[in-house]
Amino acid sequence: MKDKPSPCEIREPETKSPAWIIKWGIAIRPFSLPASTMPVLFGSVLALTIGNVPLDYPLFLSTFLGMIILHAGANLLNDVWDYRKGIDKQVNPASGAVVRKWISIREASVAGCLFLGIGSMLGLFIFARVGFSILWIGIIGVTTGIFYTWGPFPLKYNALGDLAVFLTFGVLGALGSWIVQTGSFSWVPIIWAVPMSLLVVGILHANNWRDIRYDKNGGIRTMAGLLGERRSEYYYSFLIFGPFALIVALVFFAPILGIRPEMPSTFLLVFLTLPLAFKIKKRGKFRQKKEFLALDAATAKLNLLFGLLCVAALCLDSIIKSFVS
């Protein structure tokens, strides 16, 4: 007996093509881009405020723009391989230009490779300015983007997608931006970026949680698929509420353990987004509603606001210190 379709599921993809900017906007999934750019912004501001180095604007803009282009390219290639493997069959509110047949597989493939090429060229410019200290992070980032859904062992299809985005779109993004600005390694951007990195994983998990049935039918293993519906809900709760607990631990308990530098108490600003976290958590309890289909976009919004408040916390702490001194 076949499963009954959910009342919000769209069985037939849309074929009428909208305006160029709309269909390509859907294709690159702009709602997801803050997942990769917020660590860049955070790491750069961290270097300015905690690392005490002047901000190199050309390098910052190259890093920020490069991350956007690489992420967009990875999104396009991800859609191509998901569609080819028969995984993407339904139209979701904030993505799916290929499955809607607004753009062809060839167009998405060419654009994705072009984006990865342009992003890599920006990476070479950064490498020429910074040196070998940044090279390995760039190689990891580009390689992960390519092999995320392609190759003999695609990361996404073998339950390694969560780890991949945690590293490349989270801690390594912040560390790379720190190195670009300071030229040196530090554990500070890695540790302090963990909270927002968990939210980045939350975006991916919301997507995979929604697609458990389709991924299973396509022979794809994701963390959501391994956990199942109920435990996926617990995992999602950990991903969106864990960052708040980590901020509290870093602000109040790290100094007791003698961990330096101390995270400023201004980071408690992130608790302004806690009501939003509770609001989107409720969406997971109603998995037959349209709101659940857009849970990834809602989680991306939480990640963006959380990240912006982390950046604001650094700036506010710097301003307070300048007045005190």
Query: Based on helices, strands and strand pairing, what is the structural class?
Result: mainly alpha
- Which fold name is given in CATH as the topology? Farnesyl Diphosphate Synthase
Which descriptor suits the 3D outline? globular
Rounded to the nearest angstrom, the radius of gyration is 20 Å
- Give, in order, the helices and strands: HHHHHHHHHHHHH
Distance between the termini: 72 Å
Which ranges are low-confidence, i.e. pLDDT below 50, for 5 or more consecutive residues? 1-13
CATH architecture: Orthogonal Bundle
Main sheet specs? none
**Approximate helicity band:** 55-70%
Write down how many β-strands occur, each being a DSSP E stretch of 2 or more residues: 0
Number of individual domains: 1
State which percent range the strand residues make up: under 5%
How many H/I helical runs? 13
> What does the average pLDDT come to?
87
* CATH class bucket: Mainly Alpha
Describe what is shown at a glance.
By secondary structure, this protein is mostly helical. It has helices at 20-28, 34-49, 57-84, 105-130, 135-147, 161-182, 188-192, 194-210, 212-217, 223-253, 274-281, 290-293, 295-324.
